[in-house]
Design goal:
single chain; 4 helices; two-stranded antiparallel sheet
């Protein structure tokens, strides 16, 4: 009887272990993903109008690691409606292969990188972990007429990539995911919206 009980426990532990491994594999993104033409023209122009109204309220966010202006977005704003709406959530679910929901802890932020604006090498901090899966983070580029580049390194291959993000595009990363940075703006400016999602 004891032997049967021990065998059942061992089998159960094996099932749990491999179930967790499968789930972990399906909810961890090891690379930075980049997509263009994300929103419709109407959505994009409405978003642009909304963000332009926020410009006077931007606050300096400056340290030796980062130089930018930022503001936390009101939960009732059009911006939240777009990025936390069913259409965009479903779009992300299809891309990622797993389901996400609006972040519990991290609000949406509107940020501008003007001349001298930058962000040094970093990994996104793990804010919330559901089922062993850190949060997903998205940078939506609203406007970019700067020479600033987003650079990242793939952990698996140690390969470095760089891109000048275009209007109406997104970059997808994950908490404790790929190391990345934003090079200093020498001309023009870059405005982005930062959005986080918890994994279901």
């Amino acid at each position: 009887m004891n032997n049967i009980f021990i065998i059942i426990i061992i089998i159960s532990l094996i099932i749990i272990y491999f179930t967790n491994k499968i789930f972990e594999k399906n909810c961890i993104i090891k690379k930075v993903h980049f997509f263009t033409n994300v929103l419709t023209k109407e959505e994009y122009h409405n978003l642009l109008k909304e963000c332009n109204l926020l410009r006077p309220y931007l606050k300096e966010d400056y340290s030796k690691f980062v130089n930018r202006k930022t503001i936390v977005i009101d939960k009732n704003s059009y911006i939240n409606t777009i990025f936390y709406g069913n259409n965009f959530i479903n779009y992300l679910n299809n891309i990622l292969g797993f389901r996400v929901k609006p972040s519990t802890n991290l609000p949406i932020e509107f940020r501008i990188y003007e001349k001298g604006g930058k962000m040094l090498w970093h990994r996104d901090l793990v804010d919330n972990v559901n089922n062993n899966c850190p949060q997903i983070e998205i940078v939506y580029t609203l406007e970019n007429n700067s020479d600033s580049k987003t650079i990242w390194i793939e952990d698996d291959t140690n390969t470095m990539h760089d891109i000048i993000t275009e209007n109406n595009s997104i970059i997808i990363t994950q908490g404790n995911g790929a190391s990345h940075m934003v090079t200093s703006v020498n001309k023009g400016y870059r405005s982005i919206i930062k959005i986080a999602y918890d994994i279901l």
